[in-house]
Model the fold of this input.
Amino acid sequence: MTIKRRVIGLIKFLSCAWLMAVPVGLWGQSEGDYRTTTAASGNWNTVANWQRYTSGAWVAASAYPQSSDGTIFIRGDASIISSTIRSIDQVIVFGTLNCTADLTVLDGTGTDMTVTGTGAFLTSAGITLSGSAVMTVLGTCQINAGGYFNQSPTYSGTSSTLVYNTGGAYTTYNEWTGGGSTDPLVGSGVPGNITLQNSGTNLTLAGARGTPGTITIGTGTHLILNAVAGDLYIGGNFIQNGGLPGLINNSRIRFPTAQFRRFLAAREPLAPNLLK
Done:
């Protein structure tokens, strides 16, 4: 590993640690910013869930936030549902944002959208990153039934986790596009970890994929390797609580940086020809 790469890695680590630890109040507020009320729960369009920063103080909002407003903070104790088609910009998620209708992240000024290390972004609808908009995920990004990304989010940090919670068949799309090499690195389309949950979730890889972290296969879920070619590269552990990965043609599970293959909680032995 070169000195340059070590330095870049350290910078990324420190940046991620700061984003995960800093509370909302330390981001700084500006006139026109929005934040959720204490323990806010329910719909984005419910005005009572929001406060607006006005004349140097947080006050009850008179309208729910729009993309033209300032920075929008979803605090750590909040769980907000976006159930109507909308566009957003400058959104920072410390709690939970659940999209059940199509969402567009605009390429505006400042941060387009950030899911912090404590945050979770769930979707059962289409997510579009407009223009050069960036959605940065340090925490959890969860794909529910009907959810998908038209462009790839940018994962950051070893704690970033992509969760498949579809309860049915799903083929990897823009939410996970890379990592299919001997040295998978977190970044655009490459999450730090992968989890399959919700019995009936059957994930098929669209090609070679990988993650520098851990892949967890939950009870009643299945991971199916690509039908033509494309191996799965795992830099961390493989935790198998569900069914056997489907081996098709020449696809393999590879541990590029591991001295030993690391399988935890395997309920069934893996066929030797799956591994390399």
Remarks:
- The radius of gyration is 20 Å.
- Residues 1-22, 265-269 have pLDDT under 50 and may be disordered.
- The helical segments are 3-21.
